[in-house]
Specification:
5-stranded parallel beta sheet; Rossmann fold; CAP10; Glycosyl transferase CAP10 domain-containing protein; globular; alpha/beta; O-Glucosyltr/Glycosyltrsf_90
């Protein structure tokens, strides 16, 4: 988190490359392979700069070309899931650059808290290239509004995903899950207790380093946050409708944009 915050300061947003950037492994999903068709070529420029990541080679070379804090160099970042949700989502959102989010099928635990056109720009799954082209052209024509989207997402990651809140989420999630049990859990006679020390001893290298850094040495001084009551049906429906309305508005702008382009040609 700290490294990403510092990485954002290296190049201010207005001076970043005016294109959509993505780097990852395209072989894990057809939707990513389809995204690679949007790369710049001699025939077409969809305003996208897309790079294939070879994680095997990266591992051998010490991950020198996959430094997350060093990838905040373009005005727009593309998020696209892989075979399921991608761990990259929070890192992409934290870059101060508007996230062009290809319509997802899977969700991270915080994804439903994101608001279209406020935290990210929605990209069509079935027409990625045109959708990305329009998003970048719109952002380059509305720089202040586009930058506000990037900042809103970055602030969301920095403020709403603090580890204290993540632990609160885990606490409430496990308690809610426990209430669904139809039996009383018990410890088996053959069970073996695992303490933190026994888990860390077998770890090596970075794994051990990260386990030690995240070790909880004492109970929290404060209680977990109090969960607000769940949405009532009308409020939930209104929230869903508001998000759908934002996405439909972008789709209308996009359709109008391409109709004008066709008329010019």
């Amino acid at each position: 988190m700290g490294e990403l915050k510092e990485g954002n300061k290296r190049i201010e947003w207005m001076k970043r490359e005016p294109y959509a950037y993505w780097k990852g492994n395209p072989t894990v999903a057809e939707t990513r392979q389809d995204l690679m068709k949007c790369n710049v070529s001699e025939k077409e420029d969809w305003n996208a700069r897309l790079y294939s990541q070879d994680w095997g080679r990266e591992s051998q070379e010490g991950y020198k070309k996959s430094d997350l804090a060093g990838q905040c160099t373009h005005k727009y970042k593309v998020y696209i899931e892989g075979s399921a949700w991608s761990v990259s989502e929070k890192y992409i959102l934290a870059c101060d650059s508007p996230t062009l989010l290809v319509k997802p099928h899977y969700y991270d635990f915080f994804t439903r808290g994101l608001i279209p056109v406020h935290h990210y720009w929605p990209i069509k799954e079935d027409d990625k290239c045109k959708s990305i082209k329009f998003a970048v052209d719109w952002g380059n024509s509305h720089k202040t509004k586009a930058h506000d989207i990037g900042k809103a997402a970055s602030n969301f990651i920095q403020e709403e995903l603090k580890m204290d809140y993540v632990y609160d989420y885990m606490f409430h999630l496990l308690n809610s899950y426990g209430k669904l049990f139809r039996y009383k859990p018990s410890i088996s006679d053959k069970a073996v207790e695992l303490c933190a020390e026994s888990m860390v001893c077998k770890a090596e290298g970075r794994e051990k380093k990260f386990m030690m850094e995240s070790l909880v040495k004492a109970p929290s001084n404060t209680n977990p946050c109090t969960m607000p009551p769940p949405f009532d049906p009308p409020s939930l429906h209104a929230n869903i409708k508001r998000k759908q309305g934002s996405i439909q508005r972008v789709e209308f702008w996009e359709k109008s944009y391409w109709e004008k382009q066709n008329m010019k040609s």
